[in-house]
Amino acid sequence: MVVCQDSFLLATSLLLSISSVTAFQLFRGSTGIIKNAFTRGRNTRTNQRFVDLGISLEATTEYNEGQVLLPSRENDETQFDTACVASPVVIPPCSAYSVWQMYYYGNAGCWNHGIKSFLPTGWIGLAESKDGIKWEKVRGKGNTNGCVLAPSQVEEDWDSVQLGLGDVIRISKRELHMYYFGGSSEKVPIGPPAAGGIQGFRMRIGRAKSLDNGRTWERMGVALDYNEKEGFFASWPKIIIPENDPSLPWRMIYHSFNGTTWRVFSASSSNKGDTWTREGLILEGDTNVKNSFDFSGIGTRDVSPWQNGLLMVYEGVNQEGVHSLGAAFCTNSNGEGPWKKLKEDGWKQPGGPILQPGVGAMGNWTAQVIGTPCVISMPDGSLRLYHCAKQKDTKMSIGLVISESGKLNPSSWTPIQTSSIIDIVQNVAGMNLKEWERILSRVPEIKAYNPANCKDCLTQIQQRLSVSQLELKKKIVLRLPQVLGYNYETNVGPELDKLQQVLLLSDEELTCLVLKCPQIIGLEYDVVIRSQIEAIQKELDLDLPSTKALILQKPAYLNLPVRGGA
C-alpha cells in the first residue's frame, strides 16, 4: 500500500474522492503534486503561422495521444487552472445550443484563502468545441482568473474553500443548472490529533443556475447536506432526469467517505431538484476479494443511457491505491435500481476493470492515476469516455477514449488523437515554417500522415541512434520526409537490426551510416540492401570487414534508390 510521508492517515483514505493523486503525493506538500512543469518542451510557442495552409502554429501545444484539455499556461486568459484540470462534464450540442460544452474544475496550486489543496478541485471552468475533441477554454465573466464559478469569498460560507463539479443539466432553452460541491473552512478531525484536522474536506452539494450558457452562475443554495451516517461529506453528484415520463422523480447519485471506505448513494426529488430525499446505499466496492480493483471503495462516476437502461462508469481503488474504471448497469431508466456490476468474458471480476492507468488505450501519460469519468452515448452507438489522468511529474489533464462498437471491454477503447502532423514535426523535430513548406512541396502526402505514428517513429529513431533534435531534423527528416509516415516497429527498427547484424556495425557506426545516408531508413534489407552489399563484395572482391569500411566511408557505393521527393 502506498503511504504518505507526513503521516496523515487520511492520505490513503482520500484516494478515491481525489481521483487524481496517489496517497504518497497527498501530503508530500499538497501543492507539490501540481507545481511541476507539464513536461519539458511540450508547451512550445512560436510567432510563425502556417497561413497558406490554414493552420496556426502560434502558441502550439502538443497533446499526448488521448489528451484533449491541458492546464492553462502562464499567459492564457484563464489562470485558475494552471496546476491541474479534472472532472469533465461534457454536454453535446442540442437545439438550444449548437456547440459542445465541457465544464471542469482545476486550481493553480492552492485553494481559496491560500489554503493548501490536496484535491484538484478549486474553481470551475468552461471549454467549448465544435466536435467534442478540440476544445477552447471560455473565460468566465466577473472573475479575474477566468473561471465561471469561484468559491465564496465569505470565509464562513459552506463553499468558501474549494469547489468541485458534479453535473450540469439543461432545464430549458434558456436555463442551465449546475450541481456542484463545496468545501468549508471547518476543520474535519482526520489524521493525527496534532494536525487539528483539515479544511476543505467538509463538503456539501449545491446548485447554481446560468442564463447565458454557462458564462455566469447564480448560487441557489445547498441542495444536499452531508449526513454523518454516510460519511464526512456529500460529493460529486450526478443527476438522472427521466426522459420518457416527466412524472417520475429525478435522481441524484453521489458518494461519501466514512473514514474506512467510499460508497455510492442516491437521493430523489419530486420537485425538479428543489428538495432531495435520501434513498440509501446503491453501490460499493468488493471487499470479499482482496485483490479486487475496487476493494477500497467506489467514488466518482457518471451515468448515461445505454442498451435500454443506464450505464454507470465508476472509479474504483484497490488496496494498493491503484485507480481503475469499472462499469455497472441499471435496467430502470430512472436510475431507481438495483445497480449491478457488469461482467463480460475476460473480465477479472464483476465491474471490470474496463480501463487501467497506463494500460492499452489509456497511454503512458495516464500511468500514475485515472479518474472522474464522463461517459457519452453517441447516436451511432459508440461511447465517448472523458476522464482525468496524469503520470509522475506531470500536471493532471483531461483525456478521451472512444469505443466505436459501444462495448466496454478493455480492447474496445481507442484514444483520440488531437495533435496534427505539424504539431509533431515542430515539437519532436524542431521544424520551422520554411522547412515545413519545403518538404511539403516535395512530398505533399506528408500532410495526411498519422500524427501518433509519426511521433512514435521519430522518437524511437532519435533514441535508437542517439541523435540530437537538430541532427534528427537536418540529417534525416529534411532529407527523407517520407520518414514521417513510417511505422518504426514494422518499417524501420527490424531493418536497421538486420543491417547492423550483417555488417557487424557498432551503435556509433550505425548512426554514422544513417546520418550520411538517411535513404537507408525504411528500405527492406532482404529486398533491397542485401543485394547491394553482395554486389559490392563481388565486384570489388572484398571481404566483409573491407565492405563495411567502404560503405561507412562512402555510402553511395550502396547505390540505393533516390527518395525524398523532387
- Count of distinct structural domains: 2
CATH topology of the largest domain: Tachylectin-2, Chain A
Low-confidence stretches: 1-60
Mean pLDDT: 86
What is the CA-CA span between the terminal residues?
60 Å
Main structural class: alpha+beta
What's the CATH H-level homologous superfamily of the largest domain? Glycosyl hydrolase domain, family 43
> How many strands, what sense, and barrel or not for the largest sheet?
5 strands, antiparallel
Shape: elongated
Q: What is the percent of helical residues? A: 10-25%
Secondary structure topology:
Elements (H helix, E strand, L loop, with lengths): L9 H4 L1 H4 L4 H4 L22 E2 L4 E2 L10 E3 L14 E8 L8 E8 L15 E7 L5 E4 L23 E9 L5 E8 L19 E8 L7 E7 L10 E6 L9 E8 L4 E8 L7 E8 L13 E9 L2 E9 L5 E8 L9 E2 L27 E9 L5 E8 L6 E7 L9 E3 L5 H7 L5 H10 L8 H15 L3 H9 L10 H16 L3 H10 L8 H16 L3 H10 L13
Antiparallel strand pairs: 1-2, 3-22, 4-5, 5-6, 6-7, 8-9, 9-10, 10-11, 12-13, 13-14, 14-15, 16-17, 17-18, 18-19, 20-21, 21-22, 22-23
Helix pairs in contact: 4-6, 6-8
Outline the structure in words.
It is a single chain. With 566 residues, the protein is an alpha+beta fold. It has 2 domains: 10-405, Glycosyl hydrolase domain, family 43 (Tachylectin-2, Chain A, 5 Propeller), CATH 2.115.10.20; 421-558, Transcription termination factor 3, mitochondrial. 19% of the residues lie in helices and 27% in strands. It has helices spanning 10-13, 15-18, 23-26, 421-427, 433-442, 451-465, 469-477, 488-503, 507-516, 525-540, 544-553, and strands at 49-50, 55-56, 67-69, 84-91, 100-107, 123-129, 135-138, 162-170, 176-183, 203-210, 218-224, 235-240, 250-257, 262-269, 277-284, 298-306, 309-317, 323-330, 340-341, 369-377, 383-390, 397-403, 413-415. The strands form 6 sheets. Strands 3, 20, 21, 22 and 23 form a 5-stranded antiparallel beta sheet that branches. Helix 4 (421-427) packs parallel to helix 6 (451-465) and helix 6 (451-465) packs parallel to helix 8 (488-503).
